[in-house]
Write a structure and sequence with these properties.
Length: 656
Amino acid sequence: MNPLRRWILGDRTRHRSRARSKVRPALESLESRVVLYSASGAAWPNPQIITISFMPDGTNLGGVASNLQSTFNSIPSLASQWKSIILEAAQVWAQQTNINFMVVPDNGAPSGSGLYQQGDPGFGDIRIGGCNFGDNTLALTTQPPPLNNFSIAGDIMFNTGEGFNYHTTYDLFSVAMHEFGHALGLYESSVYSAVMYGYYTGVKFGLAPDDIAGIQSIYSNNGPRTPDAYNTNGLSNGSVTSAANITSQINTTSLTALVPNLDLNTSSQKEYFTFTAPANSGSTMDVQVQSSGLSLLSPDLTVYAADGTTELASASGLGQFGTTLTVPVSNVTPGEQFVVMVQGAYQYYNLQMNTGNYALGLSFNGTTPPTEPSPIVAIPNGNPLTGGGGEAYNTNVIEYGPANPVIHGITPDNGVSSQDGVTNNPRISVLGSAPSGDVVTVYCDGQKLGTTVAQSDGSWTYNNTADALSNGSHVFTAQATDPSGYMTAMSYGYTVIIDTHVPAPPTFTGISPISGLSHAGPITSSTTPTISGWTEPFAVVAISIVSPGHRDGMIQPIGTTEADRAGYWSYTVGQPLSDGKDTLTAMAMDVAGTWSAHSLPFTFIVAPGASSTGQGGDDDGSNWRLTFQAIIGLVMSDSSNTWSNDNTTGKTDQTT
């Protein structure tokens, strides 16, 4: 157990960051299958609109205050544009599939304290904040519902202790793209060119085919963004001659029209509409295109005369991510025909801002054209609350000259994570990368251990299993010498913690709901009660039921959970228990992978007809503790770089 390895925000820094050069991660060779893109199984329940907000400085991140805005505003390359850069990074995903984003205000409520997993009125579904993590992680992101079924879902935290820039290391756009991939439900990818590759490898300007396939597998049935009704079933309104006639949608009483559910589904798309001014029209007509509240689309609007070439009015939404453009047209006469063209405002860059949902409004009586309401849906938090964390990427490489060697990890890396450098085995091998053919010298705590040679794929392994490391923390570094004799600088340190102690068995302290007490133990009215107790910080707790009629045998596992930073754990029984007396026992696995003995038995009575006293449950604040728990399934851990057991997020490591 190494509580110092956990960052205060959500107890989620299970995955240590590592430096990477341009080679396939050594971790992949340890996995049982080749992973390309990997979907977490989570997805926003209302992808039609996913809101984004920027946390004000001072927002409570679980014991530390966000300082993202003041930090990014103080960086010359970011000061005037960092919010736009982040929104542009979000929109690269919307460009490829059926999701839309919009920006909403953030009231500064503490992270994870909202009442809704999506559609909270106080802030965005995806909240953007940050603080100094105190390590070389670049960013941290929580997965969407249902893996995180409360207001922390999708939140992105940047490490303000790292040097972010624009189009140079560490490129904010590249990192933000990766983090939004996690916020939308993707794990890491093993494809080096992919944005979702687990480590920062330099500036990326857009999604790779693997990223696109991954996001489309979640939100559009493995296809691209779906066109609107005017461009399906053989229809197209992409030219003046094929303009969609919307005259029938004009209300001749109110002299207004609203054409909703429109979409520019590709960056080069144009949509044309034609209509005839109704009887009793005023002399001025207002034409409006609305993407505000519907998407981040930056639209252009042009109104033509009946010939489709004579321009009468226009407006540009260049630089406005989600906006409403209204243009007046004078000297209108009843029966006069018009053509309207809508397209994206960008021509050579930021083409992702040319896609998104929008609506078209018309008014012929001098009033403001009607607008389409934002499709925000407030979806309450789940019960019980579940939460978790994960990782993204960052690579500590020298941009000019030979790259320093990089240490990626160790094997075996036992315990709750196979990538955190914490193990109960004192005999390890060190894994890394360097240019092919370089001689790599490996050091432990500043003392030279020996050398190895980087293979043709850039990977190297130093076998140190002959020497058992002592319990405690050890820092490994490496230095490479190329065939010409050039010696690089020392690599970034990689900390390994050897922990061979055996944890004490966990304890049971309560059950909820509780209806009373008996000589056999507490009484609960629920067949799926919540059990709680204590163990070592961050330990995995495996709960088992002792079958009736067997005193010491027939122990059947029923589930796992994870303790928080204080050692508190809780578990809600999934499969209904039988009425009468039930007995549970538990074991704990510490961070390094060592299991305890079984706990003392915990016996209670299940009596569905009993009335609850209201004791237990959330009265002791256990739900708030759950807010920052990462409940991992030891036996169900996935092969990605993120955590598992139905709670996962994404985290960005500096060495990627």
